[in-house]
Write a structure and sequence with these properties.
Elements: E1 2-17, E2 20-24, E3 34-43, E4 50-53, E5 59-65, E6 69-82, H1 91-100, H2 109-116, H3 126-143, E7 145-146, H4 157-163, E8 165-166, H5 168-181, E9 186-191, E10 206-213, E11 217-222, E12 227-228
Parallel strand pairs: 7-8
Antiparallel strand pairs: 1-6, 2-5, 3-6, 4-5, 9-10, 10-11, 11-12
Amino acid sequence: MKLEIVHETRYRYTGPIAETVMEVRLRPMDGNGQRCLKFELDVSAGIEPREYRDGYGNNVHYFNLVRPHSRLSVTSRSVVETGLEPDAEPGEELVQDYLRYRSPVKDVPGVNEIAANHRIADPRSGPEVERALDELTLAIRRDFTYDRAVTNVYSAVDDVLALKAGVCQDFAHLFIAVARAMGVPARYISGYIHDPRERGVMGASHAWAEAWVPEKGWVGYDATHPIHATESHV
């Protein structure tokens, strides 16, 4: 599947500000079943961003506007091909990822209780790990309510457990915390999801998680819907 994504962010200030320093991570990554075929980044005021790659493999664009301004816009345009075969030769990078994302997020009693309900009999067995993570994904969707009004970007796993509600980013954080408490490396994914029933849909970005499954590598888990990440996830 080929998807075109336009992501626009607009900043408006109550009065002129003297300077803007910004980094953005908007270019879709290559690998693990997808490839970015085209990417353009436009910043207002004729700014030409520079680029580097961070320690997690993200392409980072950065810029500095040093004259007074009261508004700013950042627009990215991407064409991404999804549904490709997973990387045939994952190599050493996936091993390093495994080691990086296995540490516990936070020692929270509620997290440990959920993890205890999804014990993995044999952590070396891919099917056994996948079964436990599938059950965790379904449990989060069943036991927690999707509600945009109760959390924000600063909400922690403790808040989600107390409220029994949240949005995609909260469910991703909860999945990661529980998966790591189960002994499974997990990491946060920020991107987009496409509804194949609609064309030209306007919406917000989306969040889910990836967990390390033996014999498979990183597998996407979207507890919001709840499904494995598909070719509709970018």
